[in-house]
Amino acid sequence: FEFFGGSESLRSYWKMYLPKVLLLIYVVDSADHARLPVAKQLLHQLIQNNSTLPVVVLANKQDLEGAYCITDIHDALALSDIGDERKLFLIGTHVTEDGSEISSSMKDAKELIAQLVLETQ
Ligand SMILES: Nc1nc2c(ncn2[C@@H]2O[C@H](COP(=O)(O)OP(=O)(O)OP(=O)(O)O)[C@@H](O)[C@H]2O)c(=O)[nH]1
User: Fold this and answer.
1) How does pLDDT run along the chain (121 residues), one tens digit per residue?
2) In contact, 105 and 92? CB cutoff 8 Å
3) ipTM of the shown complex
4) For residue 47, which of 31, 23, 28, 68 has the smallest C-alpha distance?
5) What are the structural domain ranges in the chain?
């Protein structure tokens, strides 16, 4: 696994790694409404030339009061436009503040990702 932050300076590295990637896990902040349009644009750009790359979107910070629900995230990221050739999953997640406990949503996400990794091998 390679982990990349979303800051602008790191985005140029994303494309470099993409040809080697078997599965894309894209994490968005469900409570940061203002940045979702950019998150959408970047996701679409990233996968536009790879119609079969499986994508798992983690809609994180579901525990925050202002967080968009899963259907809102689906619409905000225009996931229905991402193509029906690929496996696409959208899961709501949150992590606890001190990281002491793994939420059940994160466990579900982890299991799904493990399964997909097995399938790509
Ligand atoms: N309540 C809550 N806080 C979270 C969750 N995930 C991360 N955080 C907290 O949010 C703060 C910022 O973390 P992130 O948003 O992951 O940081 P980042 O994505 O590297 O930074 P930005 O690109 O600036 O958003 C930290 O204090 C985290 O502990 C979550 O699911 N729920």
Assistant:
1) 777 888 888 788 787 888 888 899 999 999 999 999 999 999 999 999 889 999 999 999 999 999 999 999 999 999 999 978 899 999 999 987 777 767 888 889 999 999 999 998 7
2) yes
3) 0.91
4) 23
5) 8-120
| CB atoms near residue 64 (< 10 Å) | 13
Superfamily of domain 8-120: P-loop containing nucleotide triphosphate hydrolases (3.40.50.300)
Site to probe by mutation for ligand 1, drawn from 3, 97, 101 as the one with most ligand atoms within 8 Å of Cβ, is 97
Q: How far is the CA of 37 from the centre of ligand 1 (A)?
A: 18
**11 ligand 1 Cβ < 6 A:** no
Residue 2 and residue 69: Cα distance in Å, rounded? 27
